[in-house]
């Protein structure tokens, strides 16, 4: 059995956005502001959820944001200001392992926030 690798400081943040421009604007802002090294906007999907006592159905896009744990608070604050939803999804997933070069690239891209 393989030993479990210690967690890294790299995290993935998940959210969803409506179909259309809001997702692209959010993705661009987070990368431009160096709160994220990369943001993936996935293909449209159908979401079912309960909201205010009713089951809702919406077309959305899943968003995967790559950053470090040290940027999560600033990312959360910025995302909540940019987002059009009353209660946007904001789930942080720790990255246990990855190629050192890729993880270093993520760190380098968001580390420049602290320089400016």
Fraction in beta strands? 35-45%
Strand order of the largest sheet: 2-3-1-4
N/C terminus separation: 45 Å
Radius of gyration: 15 Å
Mean pLDDT: 92
The number of helical runs is 3
Helix and strand pattern? EHEEHEH
Walkthrough of the structure:
- This protein is α+β, with helices and mostly antiparallel strands and 116 residues long.
- β2 and β3 form a beta hairpin.
- α1 packs antiparallel against α2.
- The longest helix has 16 residues.
SSE layout and pairing:
Elements lengths: L9 E9 L2 H12 L5 E14 L2 E15 L3 H11 L8 E4 L5 H16 L1
Antiparallel strand pairs: 1-3, 1-4, 2-3
Keywords:
34% helix; 116 residues; alpha+beta
Give a short overview:
By secondary structure, the protein is α+β, with helices and mostly antiparallel strands. The chain has three helices and four strands; from the N terminus they run βαββαβα. It has helices at 21-32, 72-82, 100-115, and strands spanning 10-18, 38-51, 54-68, 91-94.
């Amino acid at each position: 059995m393989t030993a479990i690798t210690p967690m890294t400081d790299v995290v993935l943040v998940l959210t969803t956005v409506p179909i259309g421009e809001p997702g692209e604007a959010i993705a661009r802002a987070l990368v431009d502001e160096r709160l994220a090294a990369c943001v993936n906007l996935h293909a449209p999907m159908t979401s079912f959820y309960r909201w205010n006592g009713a089951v809702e159905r919406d077309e959305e896009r899943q968003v995967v944001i790559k950053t470090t744990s040290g940027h999560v608070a600033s990312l959360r604050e910025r995302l909540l200001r940019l987002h059009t939803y009353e209660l946007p999804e904001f789930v942080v997933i720790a990255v246990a392992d990855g190629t050192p070069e890729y993880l270093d690239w993520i760190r380098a891209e968001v580390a420049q926030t602290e320089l400016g």
